[in-house]
Automatic annotation (TrEMBL):
<keyword id="KW-0575">Peroxidase</keyword>
<feature type="binding site">
    <location>
        <position position="164"/>
    </location>
    <ligand>
        <name>heme</name>
    </ligand>
</feature>
<feature type="binding site" description="axial binding residue">
    <location>
        <position position="415"/>
    </location>
    <ligand>
        <name>heme</name>
    </ligand>
</feature>
<feature type="binding site">
    <location>
        <position position="213"/>
    </location>
    <ligand>
        <name>heme</name>
    </ligand>
</feature>
<dbReference type="GO" id="GO:0005829">
    <property type="term" value="C:cytosol"/>
</dbReference>
<comment type="function">
    <text>Decomposes hydrogen peroxide into water and oxygen; serves to protect cells from the toxic effects of hydrogen peroxide.</text>
</comment>
<dbReference type="GO" id="GO:0042744">
    <property type="term" value="P:hydrogen peroxide catabolic process"/>
</dbReference>
<feature type="compositionally biased region" description="Pro residues">
    <location>
        <begin position="27"/>
        <end position="51"/>
    </location>
</feature>
<keyword id="KW-0376">Hydrogen peroxide</keyword>
<dbReference type="InterPro" id="IPR029062">
    <property type="entry name" value="Class_I_gatase-like"/>
</dbReference>
<protein>
    <recommendedName>
        <fullName>Catalase</fullName>
        <ecNumber>1.11.1.6</ecNumber>
    </recommendedName>
</protein>
<feature type="binding site">
    <location>
        <position position="411"/>
    </location>
    <ligand>
        <name>heme</name>
    </ligand>
</feature>
<feature type="compositionally biased region" description="Low complexity">
    <location>
        <begin position="52"/>
        <end position="69"/>
    </location>
</feature>
<feature type="binding site">
    <location>
        <position position="422"/>
    </location>
    <ligand>
        <name>heme</name>
    </ligand>
</feature>
<dbReference type="InterPro" id="IPR011614">
    <property type="entry name" value="Catalase_core"/>
</dbReference>
<dbReference type="InterPro" id="IPR018028">
    <property type="entry name" value="Catalase"/>
</dbReference>
<dbReference type="InterPro" id="IPR010582">
    <property type="entry name" value="Catalase_immune_responsive"/>
</dbReference>
Length: 757
């Protein structure tokens, strides 16, 4: 029988089986038994995309505009071939002179396979190398129509997007939970071309002028001699730079706050940082700052959790994002703008809007919601999508323009330049993930990796040979095409060429202090500990002393506390302290309660305990859009329940709250730990790994609930049942309800020792 027929015959049943085989990763999500793990002997169609992924060709431009075949290499196909399409019989044995003889140079397939492999890696991003992304859509409310004519903001317009989150300093394989700034870059595939909003989770930047970007990054990256430490700012070169270069102090205090260690990408704000210029249909311009507000609130890890996760699950944020999407808990943000009059000074209430080390407190200029972002599809191929996406602060659409912020101005050059070396040439916008979802007639030609087969003979303007095409958009064309990009006709003040900043850029401390003054006591405590940790990791005394001087200029209490931790005297301020009004919006403890979408709830199970209660609670957790993780003494099943973590493989830091449904006795494999901890004579009644889990959850102020024998487990672990955030009861369901309420504030903050303001 012909192969094509066989494939067709097999297709139906295989697709069925393949769909069955897609056992969801999320525990508890329904899923039939996996298909047998046997290598097929007949050609069969490949697995369809997972339910949480979209077919790549459906998400990117059709290719009609570039001439590229959109279906190329999206599937595995029936037969193995060479790169030039020749069918192969064998890919497991190199061609040799006899089965024990030397390999022959003529083995083209061997050389092609190995050569391609040798070149699989591309340079990682020089910053933001570690990242993870997802597809989704942006839906405009129409509320920005009066200030911006971009189609992406038209009421009801839905625009496909790809978002990539990242850390800044670490390399591609570094841990997700390092203390760092996070990138939040969004590509909007609008019907007027691509718009990239390349944002961060911190609204200010380290430097005021892009010319210093290599300096701050060289200082933050590992030391050049031994290339350590990886993905950390806790080292001499970083603090050397930021203590000398005090305009970095505002950004740095954000890094030292809980914002530097987010709980999840889904729980971060995003900020465009710079002031942008919007243009409306009448040509009137306004200045705006972009803000992403997460539906789930802004929440962070504790420092101990972040450090532990670096080892327990370095992919914690990546996993969290993909799992949430797969389980249907789609991450969501609102896009908002602070709007300012486009006055010649570009100053609002005394705040220089062109200084990227300054915010405008939300209390002075409210963030006005203009649309909603939903991430609902995971990537199909990490490299093709997350790695190859190329953002650029200059990818603008008609109606969205830039200002003269000197940091933004440098970015307008840097992003294209970096893609040339990272993606190997000027045609990276033809890659599927970068292609606009609109027609492209750019008249750019040739170059490395040209995918298009351009027709026509006249890639120049003006021409007659291609009928004058393509035409510049003008009044004689359809309304759609007349909405061409028009640079806002902004007056540039007559001036002298200089290398200097405006005087207003010299204030490095007033807003840094405002951030400090806006924090609740718990948050202040965390900031003190973060500085003490980071400076404590520095070797050079002079660097610590210089940073203490900067802290003295922010706040005497902050400085004194950190100085005590370092064993150094606290210096006096060298600048007058300015008390700006605190901005409550800066604290993470304001607002709420927050939804629990995609939150992880651990359930400690004893095989001899209340398994019916566990089943009921598990179902209720799933129904609430959260994820139950059963922790048990062994893998496989306990009663009828699948075990997701054993006491050996699971750690407390993976969950947001824990429920204790029994009091498991020490298992045989816990014996060494037990003996070490308690001594041979003193046999604990509770498995010591459960004790550790509960102790850690308690220390990290997580909600803890217990019922039945679980209450005994709390006692055995030394957890007071009347402590804040600890709930006990006679039935699991009622305990869960209270635990859910506690999770609405992210943590039982009172337990962290400092009262909530
Ligand atoms: Fe970037 N930045 N940046 N940056 N940036 C890059 O572009 C740069 C800045 C941001 O997920 C690079 O494709 C300069 C501010 C994000 O792919 C590079 C300056 C903000 C990402 C680059 C800045 C950002 C980047 C590295 C100072 C927040 C990750 C790889 C003038 C508003 C994008 C790449 C992704 C990536 C240059 C400052 C955000 C080298 C020169 C301010 C989220 O082009």
């Amino acid at each position: 029988k012909d192969v094509a027929d066989k494939v067709a015959d097999a297709a139906e049943s295989v697709v069925e089986k393949a769909t069955d085989a897609l056992t969801p990763q999320i525990p508890g999500a329904p899923g039939p038994a996996p298909a047998p793990l046997k290598e097929p002997t007949e050609p069969v169609p490949p697995l369809p995309p997972k339910p949480d992924q979209a077919a790549p060709q459906a998400r990117t431009a059709t290719g009609a505009d570039t001439g590229a075949d959109p279906h190329v290499r999206t599937q595995q196909g029936a037969h193995l071939t060479t790169a030039t399409g020749v069918k192969l019989r064998d890919t497991d044995h190199s061609l040799k002179a006899g089965s024990r003889g030397p390999t022959l140079l003529q083995d083209h397939h061997l050389r092609e396979k190995i050569t391609h492999f040798d070149h699989e890696r591309i340079p990682e991003r020089v910053v933001h190398a570690r990242g993870s992304g997802a597809h989704g859509y942006f839906e405009a409310y129409g509320t920005a129509e009066s200030i911006c004519h971009a189609a992406v903001f038209e009421k009801g317009e839905t625009t496909p997007v790809f978002v990539r989150f990242s850390t800044v300093l670490g390399n591609r394989g570094s841990m997700d939970t390092a203390r760092d700034t996070r990138g939040f870059a969004t590509k909007f595939y609008t019907r007027e071309g691509n718009w990239d909003l390349v944002a961060n989770n911190i609204p200010v930047f380290f430097i005021q002028d892009g010319i210093k970007f290599p300096d701050i990054i060289h200082a933050g990256k590992p030391h050049p001699d031994r290339e350590i430490p990886q993905a950390q700012s806790a080292h001499d070169t970083f603090w050397d730079f930021v203590s000398l270069h005090t305009e970095a102090q505002h950004h740095t205090i954000w890094n030292m706050s809980d914002r530097g260690i987010p709980r999840s990408y889904r729980m971060m704000e995003g900020f465009g940082v710079h002031t942008f210029r919007l243009v409306n249909a009448e040509g009137v311009t306004s200045l705006v700052k972009f803000h992403w507000k997460p539906k789930l609130g802004v929440h962070s890890l504790t420092w101990e959790e972040a450090q532990m996760l670096g080892g327990v699950d370095p992919d914690f944020h990546r996993r969290d994002l993909a799992d949430a999407i797969e389980s249907g808990a789609f991450p969501e943000w609102e896009l908002g703008v602070q709007v300012f009059e486009d006055n010649p000074e570009q100053v609002f209430e005394g705040i220089d809007l062109l200084d990227p080390t300054k915010i405008v407190p939300e209390e002075l200029a409210p963030v006005q919601p203009i649309g909603r972002l939903v991430l609902n599809k995971n990537t199909t191929n990490f490299f093709a999508e997350t790695e190859q996406i190329a953002f650029h602060a200059g990818h603008l659409v008609p109606g969205i323009d830039v200002t003269d912020d000197p940091l933004l101005q440098t970015r307008l050059f840097s992003y294209v330049d970096t893609q040339l070396s990272r993606l190997g040439g000027p045609n990276y916008n033809q890659l599927p993930i970068n292609r606009p979802h609109t027609e492209v007639n750019d008249m750019f030609r040739d170059g490395f990796h040209q995918h298009a087969v351009h027709s026509g003979v006249a890639p120049y303007k003006p021409n007659t040979l291609d009928g004058g095409c393509p035409f510049a958009a003008g009044a004689d064309l359809s309304e759609e095409q007349t909405k061409a990009f028009t640079d806002a006709a902004v007056r540039v003040a007559e001036s002298t060429k200089v290398r200097e900043n405006p005087v207003s850029y010299d204030d490095h401390y007033s807003q840094t202090r405002q951030f400090w003054l806006s924090m609740s006591p718990v948050e202040k405590e965390h900031i003190i500990r973060a500085y003490t940790f980071e400076l404590g990791k520095c070797y050079e005394q002079a660097i610590k002393e210089r940073q203490l001087q900067a802290l003295a200029n922010i706040d005497p209490v902050l400085c004194a506390e950190v100085a005590t931790g370092l064993g150094l005297p606290a210096p006096e301020p060298t600048v007058p302290l300015t008390d700006l009004a605190p901005s409550p919006a800066l604290s993470q403890l304001t607002g709420g309660p927050w939804p629990g979408d995609g939150r992880m709830v651990g359930i400690v199970v004893d095989p001899d305990g209340d398994l019916d209660g566990v089943t009921e609670v598990r179902t209720a957790i799933l129904a609430a859009g959260m994820v139950p993780l059963i922790f048990a003494p062994h893998g496989g099943k306990v009663g009828g329940l699948d075990v997701q973590r054993t006491f050996a493989t699971g750690r407390s830091v993976e969950v947001d709250a824990v429920l204790v449904a029994g009091s498991p006795v020490p298992a045989p494999d816990a014996r060494p730990l037990r003996e070490e901890k308690a001594g041979a004579a003193d046999t604990p009644t509770l498995d010591p790994r459960v004790t550790m889990l509960l102790e850690e959850c308690f220390r990290h102020a997580k909600a803890i609930g217990a019922w039945g024998a679980g209450v005994d487990a709390l006692a055995a672990a030394g957890i007071a049942t009347d402590a804040p955030g600890v709930v006990t009861g006679s039935a699991g369901a009622e305990v869960l309800t209270e635990v859910q309420t506690l999770m609405g504030t992210h943590r039982a903050w009172e337990r962290l020792g400092a009262p909530v303001a």
